[in-house]
Design goal:
single chain, 97 residues
Length: 97
């Protein structure tokens, strides 16, 4: 049982670090890049990634808090996989805006 607990602990804190990365990235981007990338506004993404990170820190992966952890992780992954690449693309000038 000790190995399973360590695995869950690594997933728990690893996901919190991924959420923190997403929040900091959202914080450091230009506000106009979000509208140019045709995504929600900067404050909305900061709220989504910040709230999701908080939820991932507060709720464990292996308990009843999983019902909050899963949507929080999904929200952070949407930012990382969809929004972040578009923001980078727009700010590098690969798209006219």
């Amino acid at each position: 049982m000790l190995v399973a607990e360590w695995i869950l602990r690594v997933i728990h804190w690893g996901s919190a670090l991924v959420g923190l990365f997403a929040f900091v990235h959202a914080l450091l981007q230009r506000a106009d890049a979000y509208s140019a990338a045709d995504r929600k506004t900067k404050p909305i993404w900061m709220l989504i990634t910040g709230g999701a990170t908080l939820a991932m820190v507060l709720f464990d992966v292996g308990g009843p808090g999983l019902i909050f952890w899963v949507p929080a992780m999904a929200a952070v992954l949407v930012y990382i996989v969809d929004v972040r690449p578009r923001l980078i693309e727009v700010q590098r000038g690969h798209r006219n805006w």
